[in-house]
């Protein structure tokens, strides 16, 4: 039995994701495809536009056989930590033979050479990166410029950058999974347009915000709208957490703010200084972004502030190989052989019922799991306030079964 793993956010799920799942199965000859998916919050420092169960249902109807939830400590993190968490989870299932990922280049040999450059970064290159950041360059652009002096190109496209981090994580975790890139065929990660029946998640989120149904019907699977109706979930945005963010910045002492995961001390001081100037989440992110810190990094810091995720908790999570548990969000009934395989070979507990966690986990793992649930409930709070309707909580919601 062969199994391919993918690491994804599906924010939201679209035709490009469906194509990737099909290509991953075809290129590897896998009997099953499992997805390690971000939960209610995503890597760019924002809530997922739809809750995790809607996105899980879409994935299962479009080619995935099993969906596992990436814990909050990995999903809202740098590309390096996001990749490490996803790879560690896939590896710890004991069932993944391949790791497939999207790539702008689709060239594995090139990606492997580029990933090797990260490992060989010299003090001179590091100094050039810092110099580029001070001049206002983005992190990818500063790194590209720094490596130009070594005549060694590095990736600047978002998926290729992440692909290199997946390759590094496979090596660092000692995994035997074989990497399988799938070339993207849309207009690019940040593209706002449509290329046939494909568009980026960025473009689709924009269409959702504008209720552009003509655009959406062309770029999402047919099941998208029925899933949306069945799951009855609203669109959630970062600004839905503005009240919580302002309260946190108003009441947290500076020493606690500097202890937030990923928070640089100078950014913490800036936020603390401006704590009496209330603003929306997006306005706060835009005003705090500067030459040194990208929009995404600032947004992750602010989201971690909202969720109360500390640097200490993140370090404890990493000390557990960024995969203390495997939580099932959903599966297809015909994937029972895969679940049986994971049950036999997994090196960490597999959680199907949330209530079972107390018996399966202990110590730091259990504490982190409960913190993860707490973050998910904050997402539910934002969703319920938008609709005025109650939603099932993390203990009463069952996995999606197709």
SSE order and pairing:
Blueprint: E1 3-8, H1 15-28, E2 32-38, E3 41-42, E4 46-47, H2 52-61, E5 66-70, H3 72-75, H4 79-92, E6 98-103, H5 108-119, H6 123-134, H7 139-148, H8 158-172, E7 178-183, E8 194-195, E9 198-199, H9 201-209, H10 213-219, H11 223-231, H12 242-251, H13 254-257, H14 265-273, H15 281-288, H16 295-307, H17 311-319, E10 326-331, H18 336-345, E11 350-351, H19 357-360, H20 363-387, E12 400-401
Parallel strand pairs: 1-2, 1-6, 2-5, 6-7, 10-11, 10-12
Antiparallel strand pairs: 3-4, 5-10, 8-9
Helix pairs in contact: 2-11, 4-8, 5-8, 6-7, 12-16, 15-16
Structural summary, described in words:
There is one protein chain. It is built from 20 helices and twelve strands. It has 402 residues and is of the alpha/beta class. The strands form three sheets. Strands 1, 2, 5, 6, 7, 10, 11 and 12 form an eight-stranded mixed β-sheet that branches. A two-stranded antiparallel sheet has the order 3-4. The protein is globular. The mean pLDDT is 94.
User: Biggest sheet, open or closed, and with what strands and sense?
Assistant: 8 strands, mixed
Integer-rounded radius of gyration: 20 Å
In terms of structural class, how would the helical and strand content be classed?
alpha/beta
Distance between the termini: 21 Å
Number of helices: 20
- The outline comes out as globular
Low-confidence stretches: none
Strand tally = 12
Proportion of helical residues? 40-55%
Proportion of strand residues: 5-15%
């Amino acid at each position: 039995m062969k199994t391919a793993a993918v690491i994804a956010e599906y924010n939201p799920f679209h035709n490009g994701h469906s194509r990737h799942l099909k290509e991953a199965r075809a290129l590897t000859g896998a009997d099953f495809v499992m997805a390690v998916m971000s939960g209610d919050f995503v890597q760019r420092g924002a809530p997922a536009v739809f809750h995790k169960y809607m996105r899980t249902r879409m994935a299962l109807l479009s080619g995935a056989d099993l969906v596992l939830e990436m814990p909050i400590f990995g999903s809202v993190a740098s590309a390096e930590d996001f990749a490490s968490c996803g790879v560690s989870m896939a590896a710890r299932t004991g069932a993944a033979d391949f790791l497939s990922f999207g790539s702008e280049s689709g060239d594995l040999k090139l990606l492997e050479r580029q990933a090797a450059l990260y490992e060989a970064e010299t003090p001179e290159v590091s100094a050039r990166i810092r110099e580029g950041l001070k001049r206002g360059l983005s992190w990818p652009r500063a790194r590209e410029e720094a490596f130009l002096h070594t005549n060694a190109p590095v990736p600047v496209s978002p998926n290729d950058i992440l692909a290199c981090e997946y390759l590094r994580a496979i090596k660092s975790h000692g995994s035997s999974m074989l990497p399988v890139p799938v070339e993207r065929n849309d207009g690019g990660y940040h593209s706002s347009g449509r290329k046939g029946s494909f568009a980026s998640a960025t473009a689709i989120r924009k269409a959702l915000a504008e209720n552009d149904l003509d655009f959406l019907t062309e770029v999402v699977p047919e099941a998208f709208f029925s899933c949306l109706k069945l799951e009855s979930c609203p669109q959630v945005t970062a600004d839905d957490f503005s009240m919580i963010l302002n309260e946190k910045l108003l009441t947290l002492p500076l020493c606690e703010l500097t202890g937030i995961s990923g928070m640089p001390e100078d950014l913490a001081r800036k936020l603390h200084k401006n704590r009496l100037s209330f603003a929306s989440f997006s306005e706060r992110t835009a005003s705090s972004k500067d030459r040194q810190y990208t929009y995404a990094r600032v947004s992750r810091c602010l989201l971690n502030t909202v969720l109360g995720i500390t640097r200490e908790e993140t370090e404890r999570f990493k000390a557990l190989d960024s995969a203390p548990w495997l939580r099932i969000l959903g599966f297809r009934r015909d994937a029972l052989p895969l679940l049986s395989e994971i049950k036999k070979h997994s090196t960490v507990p597999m959680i199907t019922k949330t209530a079972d966690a107390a018996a399966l986990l202990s110590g730091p793992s259990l504490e982190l799991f409960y913190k993860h649930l707490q973050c998910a409930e904050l997402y539910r709070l934002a969703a319920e306030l938008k609709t005025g309707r109650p939603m099932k909580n993390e203990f009463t919601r069952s996995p999606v079964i197709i």
